[in-house]
Amino acid sequence: MKTCLVVDDSRVIRKVARRILEDLGFDVAEAGDGLEALAWCGAIMPDAVLLDWRMPVMDGLEFVRRLRAEPGGAAPRVIFFSVENDLDRIREALDAGADEYIMKPFDGEIVAGKLAHLDLHPSAGLAL
């Protein structure tokens, strides 16, 4: 089963994302900020990371830069999900190492489409 780490300081957003990802067949873990997420990735590198931009302790941009520098850190597919809609800021996220970008609010169809675009099929026999 594929794993996805959901990183957001909002417990409500993490719960919504968890439900969507579990419905798609992912094993889901959660982190409340980038530092907690980086520690999680150091122990178990996920297949995907759904990542908020603005968080306390370590924001999403710093997290993705540090993740990509870690051993094995190039492997996870990172999808930012944020209210940030400035094209220069979105480009900054992609240049820092994100693979995709989703605007908040999001729904299951949007998440499934982005995951399919990244060829992330959660488990054998389950297509997005």
Outline the structure in words.
The model is unreliable at 124-128 (pLDDT under 50). This protein has 128 residues and is of the alpha/beta class. Strands 2-1-3-4-5 form a five-stranded parallel sheet, sandwiched between helices. It starts with a strand and ends in an 11-residue tail after the last helix. It has helices at 11-23, 34-43, 60-69, 87-96, 108-117, and strands at 3-7, 27-31, 48-51, 77-82, 100-103.
Q: Given the C-alpha coordinates, what overall shape results?
A: globular
Q: Strand content of the residues, in percent?
A: 15-25%
Level of helix content? 40-55%
Major pleated sheet: 5 strands, parallel
In DSSP terms (H or I, runs of 4 or more residues), the helix count works out at: 5
Strand arrangement, largest sheet?
A: 2-1-3-4-5
Q: Averaged pLDDT, please?
A: 90
Low-confidence stretches: 124-128
Class derived from helix and strand content:
alpha/beta
Task: Quote the distance from N terminus to C terminus.
Answer: 14 Å
Give the SSE string: EHEHEHEHEH
- The gyration radius over C-alpha positions equals 13 Å
